[in-house]
Amino acid sequence: MPHLEFDHLNKAYGSLRALTDLTFSVGAGEIFGFVGSNGAGKTTAMRIALGVLAADSGEVRWKGQPLDLDMRRRVGYMPEERGLYPKMKVGEQLVYLARLHGMNEKQATASMEQWTERLGVAARRDDDVEKLSLGNQQRVQLAAALVHEAEILVLDEPFSGLDPVAVDVMSGVLAERAAAGVPVVFSSHQLDLVERLCDRVGIVRAGQMVAVGTKEELRRTPNARWRAVVDGASAGWARTVPGARVLSDDGREVVVELTGHDAGVEQPLLAAATSAGQLREFGPVVPSLADLFRGVVSETEEKDAA
Ligand SMILES: Nc1ncnc2c1ncn2[C@@H]1O[C@H](COP(=O)(O)OP(=O)(O)OP(=O)(O)O)[C@@H](O)[C@H]1O
């Protein structure tokens, strides 16, 4: 499978190291969620991919070749600072951008019509961009990334500021482009969305990739977590279970970490819960991406402090 590879990118702004050996790759047809705290280095990495910014070392490759000027014309990019001409009409602007990327007038017009239709801004084709609401400007920005039939999509926070309907449209479009074999990388702070949409996720912290993998891979914690809801129990019942570490206990709902993942590891907990009171709910806890993110970020912060 061809890959878009971000290979050992290093970048400093003066004395600030924005990226340190940042490495990850995105397969053709894969949606990759690029997440990290503010200032972690996501925009810097994406700008380097597009050649808007030069890396101090490292490179970005597609199908084994460094992204050169010609290849970069085939990348659909949605910059964080957005990049539309405010006083140009939506339709004209998209045709212009498609032509810049090598389409002829007829192809560019057909593509503009198709994408404005798909993204729900067809009625605004003759309006200046600045007259559109921010969310609609963003739909046009996505159309700008797609209008030249990009071979690669690199999108910086494409979901910020969108209403739920626009989020669904945007998600559908990204899934469709990925299904057509396009590698899609996007950054976002909306972790629920990243969790829903992405095949793989990379968590970057202070310019370094601190966790990368499928959601299942990232969730594979060394110990199992279980949750029990028990009515009429006295608080603290779970502490007596051998090997259990109580993570939270509000008297009714208890979350416990058990050593390992072996089959039946939860049985002593289940037995204790049943005898503690009226057992209402019992099951494994699957951490959300937000939980993983907090865990990874705080864990690396602790390591840094040590
Ligand atoms: N042009 C610049 N000059 C100096 N420092 C910069 C410049 N651009 C970014 N930085 C710094 O580099 C670091 C990485 O910034 P970057 O914008 O890549 O992060 P990000 O992960 O995209 O953040 P956010 O989620 O807030 O958009 C930050 O500390 C930022 O302040």
Automatic annotation (TrEMBL):
Belongs to the ABC transporter superfamily. GO terms for cellular component: plasma membrane. It comes from the Bacteria. InterPro entries: AAA+_ATPase (IPR003593), ABC_transporter-like_ATP-bd (IPR003439), ABC_transporter-like_CS (IPR017871), ABC_transporter_ATP-binding (IPR050763), DrrA1/2-like_C (IPR025302), P-loop_NTPase (IPR027417). SMART domains: AAA. One of its GO terms (molecular function) is ATP hydrolysis activity. Keywords: Antibiotic resistance, ATP-binding, Nucleotide-binding, Transport. It comes from Georgenia satyanarayanai. It is a peripheral membrane protein. PANTHER family: ABC TRANSPORTER ATP-BINDING PROTEIN (PTHR42711), ABC TRANSPORTER ATP-BINDING PROTEIN NATA (PTHR42711:SF5). This is ABC-2 type transport system ATP-binding protein. It holds the Pfam family DrrA1-3_C.
